[in-house]
TrEMBL record:
Family: Belongs to the immunoglobulin superfamily. MyBP family.
One BP annotation, GO: cell adhesion
Domain Fibronectin type-III residue range list: 134-229, 330-425
Ranges of Low complexity composition bias in the record: 1-34, 102-116
A matching Pfam family: fn3
Iron-sulfur recorded as keyword: no
Keywords, ordered alphabetically: Cell adhesion, Immunoglobulin domain, Muscle protein, Repeat, Thick filament
Region feature (Disordered): 1-134
Function: Binds to myosin; probably involved in interaction with thick myofilaments in the A-band.
Domain of life: Eukaryota
InterPro entries linked: FN3_dom, FN3_sf, Ig-like_dom, Ig-like_dom_sf, Ig-like_fold, Ig_I-set, Ig_sub, Ig_sub2
Name of this protein: Myosin-binding protein H
Length: 533
């Protein structure tokens, strides 16, 4: 201590004081804006705190005169700086209208408990199940004088809970009061709305119902006019009934013939212009078809039945041809006509009863006495006679014939009264007499000798062919001298072909060689020249 007093602090210039005091109104702006500013600042607290944390930490080691300057500035401009609350520091905002929680600097007191709490995390809600989609293809199927029938298709999406059913609602034209026709949902995609007034125009819609809610309604674009649509009667005879309908005796006949016409037509069946026998034939008619039923068909039920559909003088007719058949009877008058060699001829006549069907053929069988078994010889023979061949000599045969129609073979067969015994025929061999032919012929060469040239020391052959009967004798000559048993020469004859082999000829073996053929009728000869080089 020297006893000197410190000089008074210099009063900052107004410009400096004004420059340093400028941020003060920004810090004090939050209280002036009221509750609205605080609500807007709440979402931005986290971001503002992070942005402002670094500057405030740098501001911690600021020089000591700074508080004095702020204090002095606040003293000089009291109207612009509103008093800050003493229990919490003034908030600092980086954006207009945003308030963030300040981060305390080093050595500064912790923020008070009245600071705004962080926003709670949102909880995930389970997604609600979607209701089914709208029914598809809503259309009017039929309209009568007091009702109409709707049809539609199931919706594409039915939801997890599945479909409980459909509700049909109607509303008269010109009104907006929709009324449900059915009290409980139903699953059928077809519904008839009854008890309607003739001439009314009805709007209709259908909704799909499930546990998750109801769908958007499917609505007809135009109202439905309740009136009867007249339609001429028409029989729609099935294709398989346009031809003869064939059944076996004892089978059931159950035929359904659909028809159309409005109002509902009158249906009648007749046979030969007479009403049907209701004790044997049952007829049941509906609005769309008629059913013809016979429990056990008999041959007497065969014939042509006429169906008539009539509405107020307009009518349509169709004919149903029924044929009741059974297996035919056996052929008649089967007999053996002839037996010769290994063959048997049979004849018979058609059966007396063809089973109410055309005979398609006959089946012929044979049986030999030794085995006693029947074997089919001919199948579906179309004639009433036949010839059976290839029978075994010494066997005795029996024959039977079945008749056949569309039902199959007859229950029994016609058996020939007699049997066929294939006898052993005695035969003697008589050779064919062939006229003797004069085969005598003098010798004649068919292939002459040919001139040849050979090499010294290499064997060579001379060939010619001759014919004649008796077989001629062959003589070989060299230069008109007969060649006898000389080992140098080998002479052969085979099937009229004459050959002479000259083994390892030398220069002296060359010359003219002659082949002469001689028999009692004459002789012939041929010659050739051989050169040895």
């Amino acid at each position: 201590m020297t006893g000197k007093t410190a000089p008074p602090a210099k009063k900052p210039s107004p410009a400096v004081a004004k420059k340093k005091a400028a941020p003060a109104p920004k810090e004090g702006a939050a209280p002036k804006e009221g509750a609205a500013s605080k609500e807007e600042a709440a979402p931005k607290e986290g971001a503002a705190s992070k942005e402002e944390a670094a500057p405030k930490e740098e501001a911690a080691p600021a020089p000591a005169p700074a508080p004095a300057t702020e204090e002095h500035t606040a003293t000089e401009h009291p109207p612009e700086q509103p008093p800050a609350p003493t229990d919490k520091p003034a908030p600092t905002s980086t954006e207009a209208g945003a308030e963030a929680t300040p981060v305390p600097a080093e050595g500064s007191p912790a923020p008070s408990a009245e600071s705004p709490a962080p926003a709670p995390e949102p909880t995930l809600e389970k997604p609600k199940e979607e209701p089914p989609s709208c029914p598809l293809s809503l259309a009017v199927e039929e309209v009568s004088e007091n009702s109409f029938t709707l049809t539609w298709k199931a919706p594409e999406q039915m939801g997890r809970a599945g479909l409980d059913g459909y509700v049909v609602e109607i509303c008269k034209d010109g009104s907006s009061d929709w009324k449900a026709v059915n009290q409980e949902p139903f699953l059928s995609t077809r519904y008839t709305i009854p008890n309607l007034g003739s001439g009314d125009k009805i709007h209709v819609r259908v909704v799909a119902v499930s546990a998750s809610g109801t769908s958007v309604p499917a609505t007809l674009e135009q109202p439905v006019l309740i009136r009867e649509i007249l339609q001429l009667p028409k029989i729609r005879m099935p294709r398989h009934l346009r031809e003869t309908y064939i059944r076996r005796v004892g089978d059931a006949v159950n035929i359904m013939v659909p028809f159309q016409g409005k109002p509902q037509p009158e249906v009648s069946w007749t046979k030969g212009g007479q009403p049907l026998d209701t004790s044997r034939i049952n007829i049941r008619n509906t609005a769309r078809d008629t059913i013809f039923y016979i429990r056990q068909a008999q041959r007497g039920d065969s014939g042509k039945y006429e169906l008539t559909v009539q509405i107020n003088g307009a009518e349509d007719k169709a004919t149903l041809d029924i044929q009741v058949v059974e297996p035919p009877g056996p052929p008649q008058n089967l007999k053996l006509v002839d037996v010769w060699g290994f063959n048997v001829a049979l004849e018979w006549t058609p059966p007396a009863d063809n089973g109410n069907s055309e005979i398609k053929g006959y089946r012929v069988q044979k049986s030999d006495k030794k085995s006693g078994k029947w074997f089919t010889v001919l199948e579906r023979c179309t004639r009433t006679s036949c010839t059976i061949s290839d029978l075994i000599i010494g066997n005795t045969y029996s024959f039977r014939v079945f008749s056949e129609n569309i039902c199959g073979l007859s229950d029994s067969a016609a058996v020939a009264s007699g049997v066929a015994y294939i006898e052993k025929t005695k035969t003697t061999y008589q050779p064919e007499k062939i006229p003797q032919r004069d085969m005598m012929e003098p010798p004649k060469f068919t292939q002459p000798l040919t001139d040849r040239t050979t090499t010294r020391g290499y064997s060579t052959h001379l060939f010619c062919s001759v014919r004649g009967f008796p077989q001629p004798k062959i003589i070989w000559l060299k230069n008109q001298m007969e060649i006898r048993e000389d080992p140098k020469y080998i002479a052969l004859i085979d099937q009229g072909v004459c050959s002479l082999e000259i083994r390892k000829p030398g220069p002296f073996d060359g010359g003219v060689y002659t082949c002469k053929a001689v028999n009692p009728l004459g002789e012939a000869s041929v010659d050739c020249r051989l050169d040895v080089k």
